[in-house]
Design a protein that fits this description.
7 strands, 39% helix, GIY-YIG_endonuc_sf, globular, GIY-YIG domain-containing protein, 170 residues, three-stranded antiparallel sheet, binds zinc ion, 5 helices, two-stranded parallel ribbon
């Protein structure tokens, strides 16, 4: 039978070294959220529409893409994003230089006015979710549109399988 006092005596030492190591590592590596995540628990329409995830799946091909280099919240600017229709499963890729929540206010206007492919889609469908696909820095509109186009092709979001319409950017 092992002698319990020995074990009890050694435990605090190990615990102490663990605490020290944890303190050191938390200081040297700041916590960086990966993927898309909510920052507001309530009263933010965009956060409530954000899906917290580190990957996306093309609903057209089933192909999965990891988003481990992104970090997207409702206040992220210069972002390529995905809208998943939660009613029919169709997808839309968009870009914005503004904060995502400002762009999402624009989406909601489109839903009401029905003057874009996205707005037209959400006349019949109702529920959507948003996921950040790519973060850019110091980008031009052209940079973002090129990145947007790559994601449209990756995820195959052109109509009729998706919601994006060729040569119509909104
Ligand atoms: Zn928010
Ligand atoms: Zn739909």
């Amino acid at each position: 039978m092992p002698t319990p006092p020995k074990v009890i005596f050694r435990q605090p030492k190990n615990l102490q070294s663990l605490i020290v190591r944890a303190k050191v590592s938390s200081r040297s590596t700041p916590v960086v959220h990966r993927g898309t995540f909510k920052t507001h628990a309530r009263n933010c329409v965009t956060c409530s529409a954000l899906r917290e995830t580190t990957h996306v799946v093309s609903h057209t091909t089933g192909e999965r893409f990891h988003l481990n280099t992104t970090s997207t919240t409702c206040t992220t600017k210069e972002v390529i994003y995905l809208i998943n229709c939660l009613d029919c499963g169709k997808q839309y890729v968009g870009e914005t230089g503004s904060e995502l929540k400002v762009r999402h206010r624009g989406h909601r206007q489109e839903f009401r006015k029905c003057h874009t492919p996205l707005g037209f889609h959400f006349q019949t469908c109702q529920r959507c979710e948003l996921i950040g696909l790519q973060n850019l820095t110091n980008s031009t509109k052209q940079n973002r549109e090129e990145a947007e186009l790559k994601w449209i092709y990756r995820l195959k979001t052109y109509a009729p399988l998706g919601i994006n319409v060729k040569d119509m950017r909104h």
